[in-house]
C-alpha cells in the first residue's frame, strides 16, 4: 500500500508540465517500474502467502466456531467408544500385564534355575578349587619328593664318583705296592745271590786257610830241593805278576774239595808260590827292575829333589811297574816321563796327543805302554817308544776321569763324568760295553772279578764285569775322589771328601777301616790316594801341601811330611822298588821323596 | 701266602749254617699256573699247600738234605710265571744258578708249547750246557684231563737232552697205569738233581776271570757233561 502512494503523486504531477513532463513522466514511470520491479516482485510471494494465511486463518476460525458448537454433542458417544476402546485397551493391557507377569514368573524361574546353577557351579568351582589346591599341594609334595630324590641321586652320584676315584686310587696304590714288592723281591734276590756268593767265597777262603796251614806244616820236607831249582827259573816266568798268582790261587780254591790228588797238586802249587816269595826276599836289592812285586816299601822321610815339572798344574803321577820310570800328566796336555838317577829326576821324553789336560795315568804290567784319561772326552794309549798315541778311545760325552787296564791287559775300563763306565777292547780299539751309572764317576779300578767305580754320590759300586750289573754298593760319607786296589788285589782303598781314606776288604766287603789324620784334608774332587807297592802303607797328599803316610796294619799315621808343597797335592806315586815317592801339586811342582 | 712268607722269613732269619754246607741254587721256571709253587712247597714243607696265589718276583725255599753224609742246602727259587711279576728280575734268577727245572702242566698243552721260550730265555742268560736242566710235567694226577702225552714230552726232553719226570705235587703217589708212567715223587726229583750236582765238579762262582784257566775249566765241565745225558736218568 505504501508503494502505491508515491506513484499516485507522480501521476498527479505529470499533467503540470506536459512535454517535459511527458518525458519526465516516462522517466519517472520507468524509474518507478524499475523500483517496483526491484522492490515489489520480491515481496509478491510473501504478500500472497500472507493473504493465503489470512484466508486460512479466518477459515480456521470459522471451522473452530463450527466445531466448538458441534463437538459438544458429538463428544459423549465418542467417549463411550473410547471408554470401551479404553476398556478393551485396558483389558488388553491387563492381559498384557498378566502375560508379562507370567513372563516374569518364567523369567524368575529361569533366574532361579540359573541361580541354582550358579550356586551349584560355584560349589563345583569351590570343590574344583579345593581339588586344585589339593593337587597343587600334591604337586608341591611331589616336586619336593623329586627334589629329595634328585638330591639323593646327586649325592649318590657324588658318592659314586668318589668311590670311583677311591677305586682308581686304590688301583694305583695296588700297582705301586706291586712294584714295591717286586723291587723288594729283586733286592731279596740280589741279596740271596750275593749271600750265596759270599758263602762260596768264605768256603773257598776257609779251605784255602786250611790248605795254607797244611802247607806250612810240611814246608820243611819240600823246601830244599825246590829252592835249589829256583834260580834257574827264567825271570820271564816270574814276571807273570801277582795277578796270575792270584788266579792260580783262585783255581786252587775251586778244586779244593776235590779228590786227594788234586789237593796234593794244589798244595804243591802253593809251595811254588811260597818258594818264589822266599827268593824275592833274599834278592831284595836287584828284584825291583824285572819284577812287579815289592816286598818292603820304605817310608819316605825327606824331600830329595824339587822340580817344576809341567807348565801348568799336575793331575796325575805313576811309576812304571818295572823300573823307576815315572810318568806325570798335567793340565798342559802332555805326559812327561822321568827317570830317577842319583836322586834327581831326569826328563826322558814327552808324550803328546791329548787335546786337553790329563786326568789319570796307568802303566801296563810290562811297563812299556801307557794309558791316560783326558779332559778331551777320550782315553789315550801310547807305546813308550812312540810319542804319538797308538789309540784314542773316544765315545764318552764328558771328560774321562780314569782309565785302567783290566787284569788281562786286553781290555781297558774308563770312567767318565758323563756317568758311564765303558769297557774297551784294545785289539779293536772299540767300546764293547757301556755301563750306565747314576752318578759322576770319579775313578775306576779292576779286580779279578769286578770293576769297581767311585762316584760323586758317595758310593763305591761293584760291577760284575760280565753281566754289567751292580752287585754291591759301599756307601761313604763324602764324594769318592779316587780308588786304588792293593797289590794282592784283596783290598780296596778309597779317598773321599769326608777327609778320610777307607780300606775295604774285597772278600768280606762289610769290613772296613778308616784312616784319618789331623790336618789331612782332601784338596780336590780328584785327589788320589795310593797303596805302597807292598800294600803296607797308604799315601795321600793333603790340601795344605803335606804328604801323609799311614800304616795299614796299625791303622795309624806313619808320617807327615809338610812344608814342601805350596798348595794342595793332587796325586802321589810310589815307585815299585819301594824307594821313592813322588808327589805332584796344582802349582806344577813335583817333589821326590826318599827315606835317606 | 701268609704261611709261606712266614716260612720263608723263618728260613731267612735262621742263622747261616756253617760255611761248609754247600748251597745248590736251583731255579724252577715255567708258565703261570703250572704248579711251580706247589712243587717247591711240596719238596720243602712235605705237603701240598692249602692255597697259593700268583708268585710275585720270586719266593725262596730252602731245605737241607744229606747226601752221602754231607749236608747240602738246596735253595729253590720259585720264580713268578707271569711276565709282569718277573720282568725286572730275570737276571737275578740266572745268576750263579746250579740247575734249572722246567715245569709244564700235563693238562695244558699251552704250557708245554711255551717250553722252547723258557729254554731260549735260559740260553739268552748265557747258561752253559754244563748246568743241569730237567723237565717236569706236573699235575699228572689229572691223567684223564691230560693234553700232553708222555711220548710227546719224552721226545721233547730227548731233543733238548733233558731228563723227563712226570709227577703231581698234590698226589705224588699217582695212578699206576702200567708201563713206566707211574709218576715220580717230588722229593725224588729234587734229590736226583742234588745228587747230580753233588757228583759234579765242586761248584764255583761263575765269574769270568778272563784267563786261560777258566776256558780250560769250562772245557772240563763240558766234558763232564757227557755223563749228564738223559739215558742214565731213566731207570
UniProtKB/TrEMBL annotation, chain A:
Residues 225-256 are annotated as: Disordered. The keyword rRNA-binding does not apply. InterPro entries: ATG16, Autophagy-rel_prot_16_dom, WD40/YVTN_repeat-like_dom_sf, WD40_PAC1, WD40_repeat_CS, WD40_repeat_dom_sf, WD40_rpt. One of its GO terms (cellular component) is Atg12-Atg5-Atg16 complex. It is found in: Cytoplasm, Cytosol. GO terms for biological process: autophagosome assembly; protein transport. The keyword NAD does not apply. Keywords: Coiled coil, Cytoplasm, Protein transport, Repeat, Transport, WD repeat. Residues 97-159 form a coiled coil. Pfam families: ATG16, WD40. PROSITE patterns: WD_REPEATS_1 (PS00678), WD_REPEATS_2 (PS50082), WD_REPEATS_REGION (PS50294). Its main location: cytoplasm. Residues 240-249 have a biased composition (Basic and acidic residues). WD repeats lie at residues 307-343, 351-385, 393-434, 531-560. Residues 225-239 have a biased composition (Low complexity). Residues 27-193 form the Autophagy-related protein domain. May play a role in regulating epithelial homeostasis in an ATG16L1-dependent manner. Belongs to the WD repeat ATG16 family. This is Protein Atg16l2. It comes from Pygocentrus nattereri (Red-bellied piranha).
UniProtKB/TrEMBL annotation, chain B:
GO terms for biological process: Rab protein signal transduction. GO terms for molecular function: G protein activity; GTP binding. Its EC number is 3.6.5.2. Keywords: GTP-binding, Hydrolase, Lipoprotein, Membrane, Methylation, Nucleotide-binding, Prenylation. PROSITE patterns: ARF, RAB, RAS, RHO. Pfam families: Ras (PF00071). The keyword DNA damage does not apply. Its cofactor is Mg(2+). It catalyses: GTP + H2O = GDP + phosphate + H(+). Its main location: membrane. It is a lipid-anchor. InterPro entries: P-loop_NTPase, Rab33A/B, Small_GTP-bd, Small_GTPase. The keyword Transmembrane helix does not apply. It is found in: Endomembrane system. One of its GO terms (cellular component) is Golgi apparatus. Belongs to the small GTPase superfamily. Rab family. This is small monomeric GTPase. It comes from Pygocentrus nattereri (Red-bellied piranha).
